[in-house]
Every structure is written in structure tokens, then in C-alpha cells.
Amino acid sequence: MYDYAQAGDYFVTLCTHHHQCVLGNVHGEEMHLNEIGKIAQRCWEEIPQHFPNVELDAFVVMPNHMHGIIIINDHGRDVQLNVSTGKTHASISARKGSLSVIIRIFKAAVTTLCRTNGYHNFKWQSRFYDHIIRDEKDLDNVRNYIIDNPLKWATDEENPDL
Description:
By secondary structure, the chain is α+β, with helices and mostly antiparallel strands. The protein has four helices and eight strands; from the N terminus they run βββααββββαβα.
């Protein structure tokens, strides 16, 4: 069994509940985030502030899903995470810094901020997809996939307008 707390590069995909397009829209070949999408983007960008052992690489927020590369390093383990919601404060312990804990905390932060800001129906799909990035070629391929995702939305199987 693979240890997802060990150092490595991970490609993750997170989907909204029932693949609902609640994060924004693609116009032409460019993604335009709505307020929920902006919350998701901001929380994603703040992950390294809460997990000192994590760096981020390429990522994209799409209408009903997100793709991103999370790099887990060996330093900064066993941290306490405080998720600021603006008006309320939630503390969640993140002891191992595993990929699943990072994603769980991220999803909880987005959901909490959405509800605090009046988006009470926002939900994530319960699970997420991951891929362990094995080498530089794989990393380059994943980066290109992420960067090109808005360009391919018109033919994406996640696009409900198809």
C-alpha cells in the first residue's frame, strides 16, 4: 500500500457534488471564476500557509472540478491548522500531512467559507482522484494537461453542455 504522507508530487482532481457547474464558466477558451470559484482558488493558494511541508505547482479551477499538483516535502510535519472563515474560526488538526488530510482540510475550508458567505448549497463530491507523478516527463505532461484544461472545455466529458 502506498504511503500518501511521504514526500512526492501528486496530481489531484476534485469535483463538485453531482458535477454541478458552480465554480464559474468557460467563455471561449478562458475560465471566469464566480465567487465560489474565487473562494476555492484562494483556499488552494493558501494550502502552503497551513501545511509548511507542501508546495503547489500548476492548478486550475474549472466550472465543476479542479486540477492541481501538490508537492509534499519532508519538512514541516505535525502542524496545527486554523482555518479562518472571516467571521468564525474553525480549528482542525492535521497531524500527518497526508494527501487525503490536505484535501479534506481544503474542501472543509472552501465549504465553510461558502456557507459563511451565503452559498449554503455548495458541496464537493466525497472523494477525489489522485495520480502519483513519477518523473519529470510525467510532471510536464500533467502541467500541460492542467494548463490546457480550459482550452478543451468545449469537448470535456465533464462539460454538461455536451
